[in-house]
Amino acid sequence: MADAKTAKAAKKPGFFKELLTFLLVVAIILGIASGAIFYLSGKNLDDLLGARPVAKKETNHPAPVSPVSTGQEAGTNQQSNAATDVAMPAAYPVETQGQQSNAIGQVEQPALPTQKGSLKGTITWQYNDFVGTKPDVNARILLIRTDFDKNTITDVEEGVFAIGLAPKNSGLFAVKANGYGNYEIGNLPIGEYHVLVVSEQTTRNIDLPVDEYPITKLKPYIQKWDAFLSMSLMDKKYQVSTITIEEGQTLDLSHDFGNTYF
What we know:
9 strands; Immunoglobulin-like; 26% helix; alpha+beta; 5 helices
């Protein structure tokens, strides 16, 4: 009786087809479920363990050596010698006073101060037998060094010197006597000088020629002698002498012209 029912059921159309379809659906559901479980289990494991470090292959490279030592240790932030290093300046010779110059091979010596002396005096004249001596106010005292070169000044400067004014930086010296007949010239370089003193208050006999002595002493230093003569010696009494100025010494040169000619 039972075999009859089974055989009847087996003969029922679509039974196997429905069974296969059911089994296929179950397999698909099981596959999806197992995949989801695998994904979720792997994600939770990453969250628990954290990101795993990836090993990097290390390569040992020698640190670059700078051709010029900067005093910094290896590994510090240094700039490239090729692109940004500042070129080191070349060494220059250092010169000091008293040392030999590397450039010209000569010894440079500091300039020595010029040795100086002074000249002073009193210029007077005789008014008459009753009044007596009076100061020769504005008498001219002119100094010319014996090594003076007349070509170093102009004609105009020479004319200025003749009336009692020394051109600046000319090497000539001049002064006038004050109201007491006194004069003084300081800071005179040492050496030999010709001194011409020309009276302002006394005159001479113009009919007489100028003495040979002042001509011999002074003319070699004067370019325009006739012009100089007319401005200084023609009608005034004069005195010419040669002196030596010594270092740190004050020389006294005074003169009295006596009575005036007229």
